[in-house]
Design goal:
Blueprint lengths: L4 E5 L3 H10 L5 E6 L10 E4 L2 E4 L10 H12 L3 E3 L4 E5 L2 E4 L7 E3 L3 H9 L4 E3 L3 E6 L4 E5 L4 E5 L1 E5 L2 H8 L4 H8 L6 E7 L10 E4 L4 E6 L11 E6 L1 H6 L5 H16 L8 E7 L13 E3 L4 E4 L8 H20 L1
Parallel strand pairs: 1-2, 1-13, 2-9, 6-15, 13-20
Antiparallel strand pairs: 3-4, 5-8, 6-7, 10-11, 11-12, 14-17, 14-18, 15-16, 16-17, 19-20
Helix pairs in contact: 1-8, 4-5
The structure holds flavin-adenine dinucleotide (FAD).
The site of flavin-adenine dinucleotide (FAD) has 38 residues, from helix 1, strand 2, strand 14 and helix 8.
Length: 330
């Protein structure tokens, strides 16, 4: 029987890792995902023949367990190293960036890795969980229209602090309070498609003294199409300061900032798409891999437990999956 009926809420890296770690322990496991695709911030966006990694642009691997998973994904052709020209940039001056560790990307885009993980478990997309309630035995979940999504022995929230706190309020106030201290940020991402290669010699740049945090030539990543596509992430400070601007104005300002940082004039882009990520990157960190209350059958995981990266999300999801498995099989 194992862990009985388990629901995981959220199909980002944390939720999908937790689900795949739990597959054997759960009698029945369902992952509910609000978006129409799994992956959360591991996302890809297409527009008029251009393709962009619209969230997570690349990742590195420090922890041995994440490196093992990465080796496996590389063997399966789901991930590859990105051998580009990476620089630090300030007002047109650049410095070649010393890479402490290789950068990796999903193949053929960042969302593909999430789709693969989602294919290993049962994921219901397009379902936003709006309510978590204690039943006589276990938990009930329902959506915003009040429709029941079922009764579960265990509910594991693989969500950013904001949505997790909203579900836990009045249900587990001690955790809801801890989540309140783990803030996250909003971040603008601008995607640009050009009808020809732009005169920029680098493939990715960390930018100083600019509204832009980093920018990357998406089509220089392995396995991408050939069309010239750039992705820029605004700094959280700039995003907060100019939150009131209309999207067209944000796009225009970031494009100007890109040219200023690169010290060159660029063609007018054929495609310009702006996306606001909320959350963008976690900023408050819980300092524990996950939270699990075996008695109540309630758990929490997400990047914000350990850091601000997809590696942190993986390790948090894995830790929660292992904690539940150990308890269920004990
Ligand atoms: C612009 C940007 C740049 C980044 N750069 C890097 C980088 O360079 N390197 C790096 O390692 N990381 C980077 N990150 C961070 C990385 O993407 C995240 O750390 C990681 O993807 C978080 O995974 P997660 O599963 O914890 O959360 P998420 O990916 O946010 O997953 C949570 C999921 O829960 C779903 N959800 C929310 N509420 C509900 C609900 N009520 N019901 C059902 N589902 C719900 C969401 O739709 C989402 O799919 C970046 C992120 C962004 C946005």
């Amino acid at each position: 029987m194992g862990g009985g009926r388990i629901a995981i809420v959220g199909a980002g890296m944390a939720g999908l890792t937790c689900a795949t770690a739990l597959e054997l322990a759960a009698a029945e496991l369902t992952v509910f995902e609000a978006g129409f695709q799994p992956g959360g911030r591991m996302a890809c966006q297409r527009q008029d023949g251009y393709e962009f990694d619209s969230g997570l642009p690349y990742f590195s691997a420090a922890d041995e367990r994440f490196r093992l998973a990465l080796d496996h994904w590389r063997e399966e052709g789901l991930v590859a190293a990105w051998e580009g020209w990476f620089v630090d940039l300030e007002h047109g001056n650049f410095l070649r960036r010393e890479q402490a560790a290789p950068w990796f990307v999903g193949l053929p885009n960042m969302a593909a890795l999430a789709r693969h993980l989602a294919s290993l478990c049962r994921v219901e997309c397009g379902v936003r969980v709006a309510r978590l309630e204690r039943l006589e035995s276990g938990w009930g979940l329902s959506d915003a229209a009040g429709r029941s999504l079922g009764a579960f022995d265990q509910v594991l929230l693989a969500l950013p602090p904001g949505p997790a706190g909203a579900l836990l309020s009045g249900v587990h106030d001690a955790w809801a309070e801890r989540l309140g201290a783990c803030a996250d940020t909003r971040t603008w991402v601008l995607m640009l498609g050009f009808d020809r290669r732009q005169d920029l010699f680098f493939d990715a740049a960390y930018v100083s003294d600019s509204p832009i945090n980093w920018m990357a030539r998406n089509n220089s990543k392995p396995g991408r199409g050939g069309r010239e596509s750039w992705v820029l992430e605004a700094t959280p400070e700039w995003t907060r300061r100019f939150a009131h601007l209309a999207p067209e104005e944000v796009g225009a300002r970031l494009f100007r900032a890109m040219q200023e940082a690169a010290g060159t004039r660029l063609d007018a882009p054929e495609v310009r798409v702006l996306r606001a990520w909320a959350p963008g990157r976690a900023i408050g960190v819980l300092g524990e891999p996950c939270l699990y209350d075996a008695e109540r059958g309630l758990g929490l995981c997400g990047d914000w437990c350990l850091g601000t990266t997809v590696e942190a999300a993986f390790l948090s999801g894995l830790a929660l999956g292992e904690a539940v498995t150990e308890t269920c099989l004990a």
